[in-house]
Backbone:
């Protein structure tokens, strides 16, 4: 089970959270301009990298707020968590994370 | 060497010292007519049917690790075809029909045992959903029948049918042709049969890149054992499909999750069939060695760790202990995870890709083992003729653009 550091509540057990999948997928600003291929990319195509992955989590049994995490998908270690709306941290230069 | 009662007797008299290797360990040739990436059950089956039904024998199967060492060696070996939608029922029943004659076709005992797959209903919604499945299956010529509590008691005596447990059983759907097979024997049987037809199985050889010609079509692959030229590549890499396809520059509608299973200490035969319960998430059968084989769920996050959270396993064991109280004092010996590639509609992809000469067979998610022969058979057809077999024609990559999804997500036996 993962220990997840909620940016609002601090470290809590994984069973308090729901994972919301890949982060930073922006809803199209002009939906009517999208063709079927672009819609498919938005709706169904996902990065499933072997390595660092930015993903959304919801603290369902805590503050119920969404936030983002960068996690290594090989070791499952959570490298950092950050609030929704903030850009994905540059892990190579940011050493203040939890690595 | 052909396996038979004669060969068994001959080798018994010579102390079993003269059995020959079941497949070669060849070095890669500079070029092949086609290459399969991934020597799991699906990849080896594809190679076997390419060679036996389409006459393509100058082909190779490339494997990063050892053959059958991925999800083929990690699954819970359940075979069934009672899927809701017409497309899925056709695909999985195509596989089930091949299972029925597979040991003879391969001259290798895959230990297919049609002991029946029983799915338990615990509430009114389950009853309605399962009966809908039964009627849909019958229209598609797939056997499936409703059992009431007395019939369940007769068919699977160890089940706790008390109406005072937290989620009492109220009935069940039984597919009698469903059952189990020996997972390793499936990989070994296909490997041996394909090798005998001239297929090169190259283990410990990872694909690191794809070469394209001036038109953009596949011209070969780069591997850890050097470049190999070919015009057709079939990627059958299960949980690592996204990783391999990224090396060809393609993003996939897939996410990879750990799926766990565990086995108990071996005991005498006491559990006669496969039992699955969607509502309380448990599935269980007893192997011919006597171990109880138990499937747990997937983790909620993308991972390649080949291990999952213990709370996922515990959740399944809670359900098992309530369903079969006799198991409460059994010791679990091993617990492991495999990485499964899951599509948005929970149906597989057996398809051409936007790159000419590149084919993909993936997205089997949590239930690919049962489809092994049918998947290989249909995918071999797709690769050999550059057009799909009728049973896999709906399972294209393009369905995520066109919207013609095959939404088995709500119809799977166990909600993952």
Residues:
């Amino acid at each position: 089970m993962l220990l997840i550091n909620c940016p609002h509540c601090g470290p809590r057990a994984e069973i308090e959270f729901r994972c919301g999948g890949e982060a930073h997928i922006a809803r199209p600003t002009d939906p009517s301009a999208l063709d079927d291929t672009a819609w498919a990319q938005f709706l169904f195509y996902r990065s499933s990298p072997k390595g660092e992955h930015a993903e959304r989590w919801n603290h369902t049994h805590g503050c119920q707020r969404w936030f983002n995490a960068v996690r290594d998908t090989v070791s499952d270690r959570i490298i950092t968590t950050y609030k929704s709306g903030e850009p994905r941290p540059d892990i190579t230069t940011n050493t203040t994370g939890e690595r | 060497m052909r396996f038979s009662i004669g060969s068994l007797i001959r080798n018994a008299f010579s102390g079993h010292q003269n059995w020959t290797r079941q497949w070669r360990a060849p070095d890669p040739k500079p070029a092949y007519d086609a290459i399969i990436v991934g020597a799991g059950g699906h990849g080896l089956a594809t190679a076997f049917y390419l060679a036996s039904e389409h006459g393509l024998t100058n082909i190779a199967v490339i494997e990063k690790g050892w053959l059958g060492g991925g999800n083929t060696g990690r699954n819970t070996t359940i075979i069934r075809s009672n899927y809701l939608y017409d497309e899925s029922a056709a695909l999985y029943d195509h596989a089930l029909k091949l299972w029925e004659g597979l040991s003879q076709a391969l001259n290798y005992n895959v230990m297919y045992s049609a002991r029946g797959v029983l799915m338990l209903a615990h509430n009114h919604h389950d009853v309605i959903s399962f009966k809908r499945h039964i009627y849909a299956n019958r229209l598609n010529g797939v056997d499936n029948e409703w059992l009431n509590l007395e019939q369940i008691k007769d068919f699977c005596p160890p089940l706790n049918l008390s109406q005072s447990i937290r989620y009492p059983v109220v009935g069940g759907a039984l597919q009698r042709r469903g059952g189990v097979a020996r997972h390793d024997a499936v990989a070994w049987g296909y490997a041996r049969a394909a090798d005998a037809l001239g297929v090169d199985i190259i283990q410990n050889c990872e694909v690191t890149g794809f070469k394209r010609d001036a038109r953009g079509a596949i011209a070969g692959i780069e591997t850890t054992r050097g470049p190999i030229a070919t015009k057709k590549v079939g990627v059958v890499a299960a949980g690592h499909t996204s990783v391999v396809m990224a090396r060809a520059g393609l993003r996939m509608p897939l996410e990879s999750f750990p799926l766990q299973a565990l086995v108990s200490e071996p005991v005498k035969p006491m559990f006669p069939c496969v039992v699955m319960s969607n509502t309380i998430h448990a599935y269980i059968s007893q192997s011919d060695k006597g171990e109880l084989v138990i499937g747990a769920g997937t983790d909620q996050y993308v991972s390649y760790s080949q291990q999952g959270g213990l709370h996922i396993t515990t959740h399944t064991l809670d359900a098992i202990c309530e369903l079969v109280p006799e198991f409460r004092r059994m010791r679990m010996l091993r617990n492991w995870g495999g990485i499964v590639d899951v599509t948005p509609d929970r149906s597989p992809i057996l398809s051409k890709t936007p790159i000419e000469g590149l084919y993909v067979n993936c997205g089997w998610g949590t239930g690919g083992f049962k489809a092994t022969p049918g998947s290989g058979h249909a995918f071999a057809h797709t690769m050999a003729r550059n057009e799909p077999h009728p049973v896999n024609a709906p399972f294209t990559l393009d369905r995520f653009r066109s919207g013609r999804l095959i939404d088995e997500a709500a119809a799977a036996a166990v909600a993952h």
